[in-house]
Amino acid sequence: xxxxxxxxxxxxxxxxxxxxxxxxxxxxxxxxxxxxxxxxxxxxxxxxxxxxxxxxxxxxxxxxxxxxxxxxxxxxxxxxxxxxxxxxxxxxxxxxxxxxxxxxxxxxxxxxxxxxxxxxxxxxxxxxxxxxxxxxxxxxxxxxxxxxxxxxxxxxxxxxxxxxxxxxxxxxxxxxxxxxxxxxxxxxxxxxxxxxxxxxxxxxxxxxxxxxxxxxxxxxxxxxxxxxxxxxxxxxxxxxxxxxxxxxxxxxxxxxxxxxxxxxxxxxxxxxxxxxxxxxxxxxxxxxxxxxxxxxxxxxxxxxxxxxxxxxxxxxxxxxxxxxxxxxxxxxxxxxxxxxxxxxxxxxxxxxxxxxxxxxxxxxxxxxxxxxxxxxxxxxxxxxxxxxxxxxxxxxxxxxxxxxxxxxxxxxxxxxxxxxxxxxxxxxxxxxxxxxxxxxxxxxxxxxxxxxxxxxxxxxxxxxxxxxxxxxxxxxxxxxxxxxxxxxxxxxxxxxxxxxxxxxxxxxxxxxxxxxxxxxxxxxxxxxxxxxxxxxxxxxxxxxxxxxxxxxxxxxxxxxxxxxxxxxxxxxxxxxxxxxxxxxxxxxxxxxxxxxxxxxxxxxxxxxxxxxxxxxxxxxxxxxxxxxxxxxxxxxxxxxxxxxxxxxxxxxxxxxxxxxxxxxxxxxxxxxxxxxxxxxxxxxxxxxxxxxxxxxxxxxxxxxxxxxxxxxxxxxxxxxxxxxxxxxxxxxxxxxxxxxxxxxxxxx
Length: 748
Prior knowledge:
Blueprint: H1 2-20, E1 25-29, E2 33-37, E3 42-50, E4 54-62, E5 68-69, E6 72-73, E7 76-79, E8 83-92, E9 99-108, E10 112-122, E11 125-129, E12 135-137, E13 141-150, E14 157-164, E15 171-172, E16 176-179, E17 183-192, E18 199-211, E19 216-231, E20 236-239, E21 243-247, E22 252-260, E23 266-272, E24 277-279, E25 283-286, E26 291-298, E27 306-313, E28 318-328, E29 333-336, E30 341-344, E31 349-357, E32 362-369, E33 373-375, E34 379-382, E35 387-394, E36 401-403, E37 406-410, E38 415-419, E39 422-425, E40 430-433, E41 437-440, E42 445-446, E43 449-453, E44 459-467, E45 472-473, E46 477-481, E47 485-489, E48 492-493, E49 501-511, E50 520-530, H2 532-536, E51 538-541, E52 545-548, E53 553-561, E54 567-574, E55 579-582, E56 585-588, E57 593-600, E58 610-619, E59 622-633, H3 638-642, E60 647-651, E61 654-658, E62 663-668, E63 674-679, E64 683-687, E65 691-699, E66 702-710, H4 724-747
């Protein structure tokens, strides 16, 4: 047992001795953590200690997947000495991601040792904002600086700049910035606030290293966020009065000053709120601290209570100044003149016109618009509140009527107009009026001539015959005629001497009180002298006839006044003494037809004879004749029974119903009454009532029915009316009456 233990101890000693004879390595790292930026070499020193000279190799391992290189020089080493310092570098790849990586460095040889290394991979770039104040005025362009630092030990780099955020459109920055290794670069960018709105805006500046070979971005980048405050900093002062006093009659100009108290140049557009207010400049350019003056002009027509001035800059800012305006009448003129006045147009008339200056002192011109009128003065000066009287004169010659004189008084600053009314009329004017006349030889006739006072006032006149035939009789006369009235005078003539033809006479009238162009008048009277044959001739209408012996008969004949004047005619008959005329006188108007009758009563022993009967119508020495033949037949002869007739004639308001002597006439008058008459001696005269008459004459067993219409108003009452119905009804009634009469005779 003891021997075994001894042997075991010997073996252990041998083993220990054997081990103690091999080399042992120990690694002493200089660092256990290191910061390395992308694509840069960062030294990592360490020391190796060996107990015996030996051959060792070094390797790197870790979770970087090869993205970090760490060369150890030399990678294999024979240690002749016991201690060796190694220089190694950690180099992250250009495309590595920023982060922490765990590496292990192992020494392999007769013995093994290692150490752990924590690598912090970071960007090489950092950014610094050198202008922390980010406030600026709207419209202002401002420059800012940033510092780019490159901590790479080995590499100079170009960084590409990227911008984002709401302020990015307003920023002008370099595309690339060069930064040397372990150096820094300060670069600038500008921001134009006019591109943005007033308010807060953010800007992100990102600088990235781009791998030049492939153009790929790396994570060697840095980002800087900025916030900008854009303010409306316009500080424009408009220096103008708060209120202005303006006259309506004048324009007004005042100076207005514009001062830029802001930090930036102002490009201004100037305007007002009224087309009747203008500025001498429409635009201004003002540097900070500069003042410029323009002129504000309010036109004569400006009447508003205020005017607003506007200054708009190109960035949209507006400054405003409101000026109160007190407008008033500084110049005023009052004109007064004739209203509802009356005047005679026969002579010159004058009227008073007053002009009052109710404003400041001024010079005026005056004019009037009306025919035949003028003012006593057309130019004058008036002090404030001064009144001047002018005279409006109107020359004679205006026609009658109402006139409106328009009087205008004006200056350069005010105008007044007055419209008056004056009623002009002819106070004294005379005219004569007469129409053409005719006169017949041996006619006593007057020629009326009217003296017309066409003036408004009464006047007295002398009227006389200036020229004319000596047989025209007129004595000069004095007459008085009221205004707008007339008096008639009557020159007349009675003579049979003048030959027929055309004559004229001139009558003159003149005022005995007035002396003007209208105080007299003349009239020429034209008249025609007609012959007696033209004036007093008649037309006779009469027919031949056969009459019964020892019976009285009536023949109607017509007499027409063929002359142009009223006339009385004497009717005579020449022939057998048993022929007479009735009536013997007819008074007829021109062209009127009258009726008279021949009463024929042939005596015994005249049967079979024919007699000439001459009807004569005489007036003022002019005779008209008509001859007819009267034949006489025997009583009871065939001719008598067969040749009789009834007739109705109307003259001088009488209706003459005629027929054979002893005939029975039944008459239906327009009022519906039936009357019976015996025609003895052959006719009956009835009052000619207007309307339609119906007559039935019965003689020797024969009946003749006649109708006749008397012109005039038709009756409105009664059993019948004047119509065809009346005729038919009347015929029936008459036949009925005749039947009764015949029956009565038979009974007797």
